[in-house]
Amino acid sequence: RFSPSTDIASQTRLKSSVQRSIRTALATQFPLLGENDGVLLEQIWPKKEALVHVKCREHVSVYTLNGEPLFFQHFDGPYYPTLRLLHKYPDLLPHVQIDRGAIRFLLAGANMMCPGFTSAGGRLPPASSALPSGTPVAIHCEGKDHAVGMGITKMSTEEMKTINKGVGVEITTYIGDDLWPLEKL
């Protein structure tokens, strides 16, 4: 379990040059944030506000604004929005959907297998907008409105449809994990 008193190594206010590079990386990684001269990014993270870098156990970095976690990162990997931020701005990440049978496994922290996406209740993007391997995605559940998890594709969505076995999405965060209950750090 995540405990801020024992699992946070340090909190550092970022220099403006580092903040600019993070803004650029976010706008590149999430095209929606870069649209319209970054209006959405400005809503989420105003330029005048300082971002705080919270270093946690196992090389996880959480970026907070006024104590509210906005994004996190493992080592120097891609940035991920927190689930709370994803619920406010649901189009930040591409969507995939699992069937009802996979929900309990997701909420237990298991990686999502291909059959959960290809069965009757699952949904993957059409071939015209297929996602490559290594793409961060929002995981929705059959019959639910909001994303219940996030992960990174381990194979392309077209490979998931044809191979239909093995891990399709490696989970990074889900409702009920250690990051979910943190509204303020």
Automatic annotation (TrEMBL):
It is found in: Cytoplasm. Pfam families: Pre-PUA, PUA. PROSITE patterns: PUA. The keyword Cytoplasm applies. One of its GO terms (cellular component) is cytoplasm. SUPFAM superfamilies: PUA domain-like. One of its GO terms (molecular function) is RNA binding. Signal peptide: none annotated. CDD domains: MCT1_N (cd11609), PUA_MCTS-1-like (cd21155). Residues 94-176 form the PUA domain. This is PUA domain-containing protein.
